[in-house]
């Protein structure tokens, strides 16, 4: 597997997604949704020492799960389906490009552009939380510098694994079924699943069922809600700083492993679907100059 050829495919897919209206619709929607979660009707009004950090994590985690996940699922699921009509599989037989290079390149191209979009959304997030959502005037830059680590920590811990999982799952379903309808069902099914794992609260907390629901939450928001959002609704329970634990680490690792497994499965499936000795060097015909008469 050549990293150079994989990156070349990823760059082509990145530029293709950049020109699609789907990506720009995602950027146009995630900004007002982020405002609604940060300062609008769904804003977090908790108290305590770590309330601001919890609000930042909550805003980015929810925005990624409900908006970015929806769009990346559609883009990833249609990535290979769109190439079927162009008969890309037949072209692979005449090039040294391997199926794993093509599959991983397509997937990374989709994942990278939507990860960039979520990362770029940190700028309006900072405006919403540090400017519009703060009563302290004249201290914008010190507040941003103080909480800058919270933004990037949430991006790495919550947003990127969620994108990886959603893109990988939809990518596999699109490649395996080649049906656009099923691709559009993926984000609907994921939102329905998130509604279940976010709202089911077995009593008492800490039971095996509660732990299982936390582990199978691809967004990680259930852990955030159970451990930090609810306690910080009151000052008495919200004085401790926000820290991560093994349960969340297990959840995020499992989410990433499932996403990667889906892509590896696509490599095997795609190689089998196009058949032939793909990636073999193309023989050069022996053309000899005919003697002049």
Written description of the protein model:
- The protein is mostly helical.
- It has one domain.
- The chain contains 12 helices and no strands.
- It has helices at residues 3-19, 21-38, 51-79, 81-84, 88-92, 99-120, 122-132, 140-177, 180-199, 208-215, 221-229, 246-274.
- The longest helix has 38 residues, at 140-177.
- The protein is globular and about 65 Å long.
Topology:
Layout: H1 3-19, H2 21-38, H3 51-79, H4 81-84, H5 88-92, H6 99-120, H7 122-132, H8 140-177, H9 180-199, H10 208-215, H11 221-229, H12 246-274
Helix pairs in contact: 1-6, 2-3, 2-7, 3-6, 3-8, 3-9, 3-11, 6-8, 6-12, 7-8, 8-9, 8-12
What key attributes describe this structure?
single chain; 293 residues; mainly alpha
Number of helix segments?
A: 12
Largest sheet: none
Backbone CA Rg? 23 Å
- The whole-number mean of residue pLDDT values reads 81
Total number of domains? 1
Structural class: mainly alpha
Strand runs, count? 0
* SSE pattern: HHHHHHHHHHHH
Low-confidence stretches: 234-238, 279-290
Question: How much helix is in the residues?
Answer: over 70%
Q: What is the beta-strand fraction?
A: under 5%
So what's the oligomer here?
Answer: single chain
The termini sit apart by: 49 Å
> Looking at the structure, what is the overall shape?
globular
Q: Could you give a quick summary of the protein structure above?
A:
The protein is 72% helix and 0% strand. It has 293 residues and is mostly helical.
């Amino acid at each position: 597997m050549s990293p150079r050829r994989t990156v070349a495919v990823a760059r082509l897919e990145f530029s293709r997604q950049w020109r699609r209206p789907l990506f720009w619709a995602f950027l146009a929607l995630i900004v007002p949704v982020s405002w609604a979660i940060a300062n609008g009707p769904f804003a977090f009004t908790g108290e305590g020492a770590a309330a601001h950090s919890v609000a930042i994590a909550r805003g980015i985690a929810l925005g990624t799960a409900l908006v970015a996940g929806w769009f990346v699922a559609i883009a990833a699921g249609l990535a290979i389906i769109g190439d079927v009509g162009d008969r890309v599989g037949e072209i692979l037989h005449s090039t040294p490009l391997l199926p794993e290079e093509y599959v991983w390149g397509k997937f990374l191209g989709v994942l990278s552009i939507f990860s960039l979009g979520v990362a770029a959304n940190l700028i309006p997030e900072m405006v919403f939380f540090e400017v519009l959502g703060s009563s302290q005037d004249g201290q914008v830059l010190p507040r941003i510098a103080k909480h800058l680590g919270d933004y990037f920590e949430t991006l790495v811990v919550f947003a990127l694994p969620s994108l990886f999982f959603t893109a990988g799952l939809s990518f596999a379903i699109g490649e395996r079924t080649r049906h656009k309808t099923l691709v559009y069902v993926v984000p609907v099914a994921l939102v329905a699943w998130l509604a279940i794992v976010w709202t089911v609260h077995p009593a008492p907390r800490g039971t095996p069922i509660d732990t299982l629901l936390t582990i199978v939450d691809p967004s990680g928001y259930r852990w955030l809600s159970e451990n930090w959002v609810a306690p910080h609704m009151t000052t008495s329970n919200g004085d401790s700083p926000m820290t991560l634990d093994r349960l969340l680490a297990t959840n995020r690792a499992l989410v990433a492993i499932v996403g990667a497994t889906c892509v590896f499965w696509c490599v095997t499936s795609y190689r089998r679907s196009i058949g032939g000795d793909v990636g073999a060097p193309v023989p050069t015909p022996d053309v000899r100059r005919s003697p002049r008469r």
